[in-house]
Structure formats: C-alpha cells, structure tokens
Protein: Dihydroorotase
Organism: Allocatelliglobosispora scoriae
Amino acid sequence: MTAYLLQGVSLLGAAPADLLIRDGVIAAVKATTLEELRRSLTGDELVEIDATGLVALPGLVDLHTHLREPGREDAETVHTGSRAAALGGYTAVCAMANTAPVADTAGVVEQVFRLGREAGLVDVQPIGAVTVGLAGERLAELGAMAESAATVRIFSDDGHCVHDPRLMRRALEYVKAFDGVIAQHAEEPRLTEGAQMHEGEVSARLGLGGWPAVAEEAIIARDVLLAEHVGARLHVCHVSTAGSVEIIRRAKERGVRVTAEVTPHHLLLTHELASSYDPVYKVNPPLRTDADVAALRQGLIEGVIDVVATDHAPHAAQDKECEWAYARPGMLGLETALPIVLGVLRDECGSDSWELIADRMSIAPARIAGLAEHGRPLTAGSPANLTLIDPAARITVDPHALASLSANTPYAGMTLPGRIVATFLRGVPTVLDGKVCK
Ligand SMILES: NC(=O)N[C@@H](CC(=O)O)C(=O)O
Ligand SMILES: [Zn+2]
C-alpha cells in the first residue's frame, strides 16, 4: 500500500509538522526523519507531498446531504454526490431519506450504504425515515433500519416535518433505546401553506407567499419540550432564525439533549436575493434577514449551534430553471461549504479559525452521527481520514465545472477563499491536486 508523507503541514495552530500516512492510519507525526522513514518503508511506495502553507483538518462530516439515489439519478447519484463530497473535503456524509422509494426500510438504507461503499470516495451513512413514506402517519421500521447492515442512528423525515406531536414523542421514545437521534425539519405546515420565501418586507413587495420565522420556532419549542420529557436526543436541521437560536440556547441551558445545524447558505445569504426571482435562491427553510444571519453566526461561534451541515440539495435543470413558484427548493452545498464557512469566520473573527472549523464541520458532526472513525484528532494511530486545504488560494465557482450532476449553486461566479487540495479516506487519497482520484 502506498504511503504518503505530507511535509510541513499545519496542524490546528501547532507548528508545521510532517505527517506520515500508512496502512490506513496516521503512522507518525514528525516522529521520524525522512532518512529513517525511507529505510523503514522498504517495499512500500512513498509519495512525498510538499504541504508547506497547507492546513490539515480531520475529514469533514456532513450531517445533511441529499444524494437523490434511488429515484432521481438525473439530479445526483451516490457516486456523483460522493465525488462532490470528496472534492469538498468530506470523508463522510449522512444521506437523507427523501429518495424514491423513501429510505424507510432496511432494504433501502442497505442499498444506499452499499452504493456508497462501491463508490468508495466517502463513507455514506444512510439516514432512515421517521414515518412510512415520509407521510407523517405511522412510524417506519426504525428498529430494522438500526439493526441493518447500514446501522442507522439518525432518523429524519427531512423535506417534511414530523408534525404530529404524538408520533414525534413515540419516535423519540423508540430511538432512545439505542441512543439514536431524531433530526427534525422544523416547519409547522399550517403556518407555511403557500409559502415561497421568508415572510417579511421582501415577500410583501414581491407578492410571494411567506414562511414566517414562527413556523420554524414553534416546532423547535415543542420538540425540545418533547425531547426533555422523553430524555431522548433531538437534532434540529437547518436552523434559520434568530428566535430558533434563542430557543435552542435556553433548552441547552436546561440540559435538554438537543443539537443543531446551520447551513453555509443561511450563514451568508438573505431574503433580498429573492428580488431577482431567480429560483436558485429558493430553499427550505428560506433565506432570512441580516439579523438572522448575524444571530446564526454568533450561535455557531458560541456552540449553541453545534455544526455546519450543507443540506446539499441537487435539482435537475427542469426543476430549477422555471418560474419561482414551480421551482423545487434547495441548493448545492458540498463543494463550496468549507470556502463559505472560512470566509464567514474570517469576517467574524478577523483571522482563520481552524479549531472552530474542525469542531463544527468534523468533530461535532461525527460525534452526533456516531461515526467513530471520523472527526478524530490528527495524531499517530488515528484513522487517516483528513483533508488538506490551501487557505491562501481562492476558487471561482463555475456551476457546470462542479462534480455534482446538478448546477443549482447560488454562488456562481463568486470568488471564495480556500481550496481543497487533497482528501484521504482511510489512508487512500480520494482527491489529489484538487482532482478526484477515481
Ligand atoms: N432544503 C431544501 O430546500 N430542499 C431539500 C429538502 C429539505 O432539506 O428540506 C430537498 O430535498 O431538496
Ligand atoms: Zn429540510
């Protein structure tokens, strides 16, 4: 097996070091001189990579990815989504259940798991549906999915809210037995009927139906109470309002077992963009106000929001390049997440925040998903799941040059800081020199 020596790499604030990757693990950090190393490697091939000025992070972990397979292989497949993930610095992604058929049985989650293994570029961890067909009427086979070869630990009806409080309670009770987690798409459906964007001055001006902040906040408030009552784990998907951050903050202070995610787009973009009527900006939950963006950034920095998750939502051209009202909600995220977050945190903190990025984009999501091989510190003996970033480089986003099968990125033409140079999965490069290895 080929060994890799990353020379002069930055490891989270520490002085530059040499990092040796061999047999799937980090074999040594700065422990051997190159000559000793060469002698110890007889028989193996050693690839030396000049990593001066590059930063190594534990491989990124995405808690919220839509891979669209099975069912919409014209928008994305497990393979194309895996390529996009590896290029974005990810070594693991959690695949949402809103496929066709829905991932609500052991058979479907095992299929997605197997497709991920076959692609071999990131660990694809399926999320199981909470209710049969995402219909919100009866619980899916949570136990069978948990016990399947895919060992599902996160369940979500994402795209839909589990709005029946009794079902939500039962789901929380059920997963508590194996320390699973319910990831809620918080949207009170009666308050979002006809909604097309954030309810506020822009929706009033454009004449588009509004999704008020309270539609999200009312469900989060209810669900933290249910999670507290049951003593089970709740995860809140794509938090988008300042009020939601406050509810989660208070719940955490009371000791409720709640975690939360924010997307890169909710950290950067606002509802003003809808004025263009360009459906690339249509997403659920909708882009909100400047004040919401500020509160989400603060919540992320303080840790009230535990993770950045992409909500990578590829859509085929015919579902996106149409009139706003008919367009599907959702935007791409995997290949631009790290640059967006790097830029946002440079804005907020004035310098690079690698410790924060490592925690919010790798360590915390790996812990929430129970992915023990991911989000580990880059020390000798750890699995070699890592990504190498050039913080001085910039990328310009070209929607059609992305690895994703779809092109619905809201960042087209934007120049963003940070370039993913390489990604390693269990010691094998999935990306080298910014290109996918297979
Ligand atoms: N975020 C979106 O706007 N869309 C997601 C579903 C979801 O995450 O709600 C999708 O599946 O397209
Ligand atoms: Zn959602």
Residues 66, 98, 158-159, 185, 283-284, 311, 313, 328-330 surround N-carbamoyl-L-aspartate (ligand 1) (CB under 6 Å). The chain has a mean pLDDT of 96.
